[in-house]
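Review form for a predicted model. The reviewer records the input and the model, then writes brief findings.
Reviewer: anonymous (R2)
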Amino acid sequence: MNYNTNTDVNETIFEDLKEYDEITDPELVKELVGEPIILNHYRGDEEFERLFMHTVDVAALCWGNVDDKGIKLQRTPIQFKVDSDEKVMRVLPLNKFMISLAFLRCVIKYIDDLNIDDFIITGQYLTEKDREAIHNRTAKTLREYSLSTREINQIMARCALDLKNLNNVFAYADMMVFDADNLFLDHYKASKTIREINNTEYPPTAQTADIVAENAKKCKVLIEEMTRLNNPLFRANKYVKIIKEKQLEELYINFAQIPDGENIIPIIMNGNGFKAGYHDMPTLYAAAIAARVPDMMNGKYMGKTGYFGRNMWILDYGTISKTVYDCGSRNLLPVTIDEVELEMKEGRFYSMDPSGERLRVLKRTDTHLIGQKVYFRSPCTCNLLEDCCHTCYGTIALKVGELPGGFIYTTETMTGIIGQRILSAKHLLKTDSEPVEMSGNFEDWFSFINSSIVPNDTKRFDIFIKDDYADNISENVTFYIGKDLKPVTIGHYANAYIPDDLIKEMKDVYIGEELYHKISSYKVLDAGIPLCEITPINIMMTAKYFNLNRLFESNMSKYSSFEEVVSVLTHLLHKTIPILSVHGEIIIGHLARRPDNKFLRPNWLNENEPYQLLNLKDALRNTESITQALAFENTRHHLLYPIFDERNKINRVGPVSFTDFLFGVDNM
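Model under review:
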């Protein structure tokens, strides 16, 4: 195919087209295409190839040109029929007709027996859903005509290649050029709503969390207004989803406060430019430094998270069993249902009785269970050990049973997010914080300005702080006001810091037997430094997955029951893929060992079977599988204690006394 859209020389192979450098007349388009087209005249491969290539070259010559009404010539209506006896004349714009030919090429030999509407573009747009539907109908038709799988794959591959070539060439040929006028400025002039949003300012007393929430509301209004005004980028976004709300807020609304990947820098930038955004040296400095922190995070954490992922993959040999529907486990997982559990455990088997009688499937509509304790069959206690039966996994097993790599694949999905979040930390420009909590009388004495605690200047009062304030400052800090020691408490933050220079200015006084540091509110104001600086909690996904890392690497052994740790993991994985909650239980089950022997997994056929939970490295170190133990990095341990010696102490009947899950050797 030629696809001659942007050359000065017409390179078409068709003699009737060689004389044209371009086509500017819609009637000439119709004449050259040869309408009306009778499709069943082109059932042979060579005939259809000529029709298709000729139509493409006509489109290339007229593409982008307009008629006297301003309509682009690629939208010239083309008339066609399936056969000459058909009473109804069909019409498609040239561009849709051309793309429909790419679909029809697959089934043209059988055109007389088909409903052509199933294989042409009938909607306003060719959506991904529509394209997949046509592909599915095509493959189904070819199977019905007894074509082999190999033949069907070859035909479908040719169709996909044609579509890709057409899309690549003609999309560029008709690309709309966006500039500042049609993207924003025209609408800024025309819409009072957009002007008000673009000039958003926040007072210095606004909390970061409040700014984030307000920005999100304004962003929705902005999107609605831009769409109403037919902004081309916003209109296209309905189909391509390329606009990120975070970027819209930064570009059009307000920078809010600057996050640097780990903390939130307490500088509010009111506006989106050098006038009100980067308007002074401290703001410019903060933004410049914030851009460096994510690079340091990459270097600090990427190796650690990759190592964590590797160890999790070593742990998780296994898959959903293809032969065992129910392993017979008699140890169910007790769960108190809340909204998170209801969402994440949808499709799982549960019973109202700990014995597991009358198993039912949990549905998201089972809101009557909220607040009740129910008992789930769980991968934690599946007696297939490395694999998992359908009953313990849940009904979703039928949908994921053929995933390549088994549980290693799902583990990679879970742990890979950690690395991806760290790699994208440099793009975490949007602050997403939780509100700092203050006691109800806070505003009587203090103001919260740019994340700093400053005394009000309307009255003079003494401020007291206990001598041991540093012991609890990571959780909260309490200031006491006046001789009555009225407490004012600030909590729920990432960090709090009382300047050392201020501490040096305080006087030590005893009230009763307790030592306090005392300073006047006016002395704090005269010093020109805040009483306390607060860093809000920055809710970023990286933090969530670091918690996942810590849970498996260091905190697992602190839990005494599956019930506790599964609840923690389920809530930690909320707002991710629900299947990860199920898979998390598989990993936890792989960390379970018998209390009297760290090498052996519990026998879940025994009711109320005792167990202990090991941390990730401890579980890899103490495993029956020789391949798992050798894959783990514990080289020194293997040299000091020969790897077979410990495993040969496990008394078993059979040629070997240990199991090797990787190679399928199991003498249980």
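Findings: The longest helix spans residues 149-173.
Further findings: Residues 1-8, 422-431, 653-657 have pLDDT under 50 and may be disordered.
Recommendation: see findings above.
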